Amino acid sequence: MMKFGTKNKYKFGDVIIAEVQFTDTFEIKTRPAVVLFEEYDNIVCAVITSNPNMKGISITKKEGMKAESIIKLNYIFTISEKMVKKFLLNISEEKKQLIKKELIKRFG
Known about the structure:
The chain is mainly β. The chain is built from one helix and six strands, in the order E-E-E-E-E-E-H.
């Protein structure tokens, strides 16, 4: 049943800890992700990795992360709100604009 008029709990730029199923395995792991949008208790996210060799948008310890990290816009997934374990922080407006710009380049 669709819910109309309900307020979303998460918004664009929120960094969360969530259960993520990887594409190359059936294993579910708990990982950080940045929220792109939420609709009807479904949250569309981009995964965050601490692997410095990955391509993406950097997000630093100074910005509130536990480790120097990369937002991977090539790994977008949808989860249920029930899979969110914790809210960490909301990224800066500058980072949000970088994400928008990169997504538009990919979809444009």
